[in-house]
Amino acid sequence: MIKIAICDDNHTFLQELKQLIRTYLKAHSIQGEIYTYEDGELFLKSFQKDYFQFDMVFLDIDMPAVDGIEAAHHIRMFNKNLILVFLTSMENRVYETFQFNTFRFIRKKYILEELEECLDKAVELLNHEHEIYAFKTKEGMIKLSLHDILYFTFINRHVEIWTLHKQYTMLNNRFQDIIDLFKDKNFVCIHRGCMVNVKYIKAINKLFIVLDNNEKLSISRYKVDEVFKAFANYAK
Known about the structure:
Blueprint: E1 2-7, H1 11-27, E2 32-37, H2 40-49, E3 56-60, H3 68-78, E4 83-88, E5 104-107, H4 111-129, E6 132-137, E7 140-145, E8 149-155, E9 158-163, E10 167-169, H5 175-182, E11 187-191, E12 194-197, E13 201-204, E14 208-211, E15 216-218, H6 224-235
Helix pairs in contact: 1-4, 2-3
């Protein structure tokens, strides 16, 4: 399920874009939910309830009160991985969007030509992040995507899975098996008992990392270079 938000103060364009995206999802047999906002302040209020509720956001740059640039500043303070697409009729403001790790910049007058390519690439990226894995845990069999997992730890001879909202204890798994399975999927070991999803690392120094949920995890001095390299490669 892909969750998409559109924020644009032009009601007619907003509904047109919503219908174009809905048509695309249906044509590609993709399950999705589309949320629309005609006011930047209302969008931010919804975003603040759950910083990880949306996979993709379309933002109009030019809006009254809270414009797309200000909204993007707030988004990136709490979620650096959300797919962010800017919409505008003012092409001269495109350079202001580069600081936000912008996925695409779509010109409104070329929406029909530029939207499909944008959605194709976004879906390709999200399909990778939503790749599903099954785990046997004390709670029973569970299914999680890469997007769901913050990190794994090895504690008291058990592998623990830490997600945004819950912790699970795995049964009959070696930590090395987890390392082998996820080492090529943007996960990195920060010490011998912890493997982290790099996409959720917000900040890093030689002593610890900070995740998007503001949790701090210590780094082994033997792993510092490896973690810095993984962080830099993902940022690129």
